[in-house]
Amino acid sequence: MDNTVLIICLCALATYLTRTGGHLILSRFGALHHRAEAALDAVPVAVLTALVAPAATTEGPAEAIAIILAGVLTLRFSLIISVSAGIFSVVALRSIGL
């Protein structure tokens, strides 16, 4: 099996287990304190920032422009539209040599 496919499968399994485990643990507590709920709501943004920030700062200008474009589009449109625009823009910008 290709290493890429193995990594994707292991990441999918880890994601499934953490989501299921988190749901099972949190379902035993009932209502969460508002601060704990706010902290859990901030986790996806923190993870996305941790994944995107290195590419924006260490890669070329095409990646930085695509990340900024996707971020601006996220304020107005759905996630699928903003991510698609980011992907298409980075491909277009790389093809013209940025």
Order of helices and strands: HHHH
Helix content: over 70%
- Roughly what fraction of the amino acids lie in strands? under 5%
Q: How many whole angstroms does the radius of gyration measure?
A: 18 Å
Number of strands: 0
State mean pLDDT (0 to 100 scale).
86
Give a quick account of the main beta sheet: strands, pairing sense, barrel closure.
none
Structural class: mainly alpha
> What is the number of helical segments per DSSP (H or I, 4+ residues)?
4
Give a quick precis of the structure.
The chain has 98 residues and is mainly α. The protein is built from four helices and no strands.
Keywords:
0% strand; mainly alpha; 4 helices; 98 residues
How do the helices and strands line up, and which of them pair or pack?
Layout lengths: L2 H25 L6 H25 L2 H14 L4 H17 L3
Structure commentary:
This protein has helices spanning 3-27, 34-58, 61-74, 79-95. α2 (34-58) runs antiparallel to α3 and α3 packs antiparallel against α4 (79-95). With 98 residues, it is mainly α. 83% of the residues lie in helices and 0% in strands.
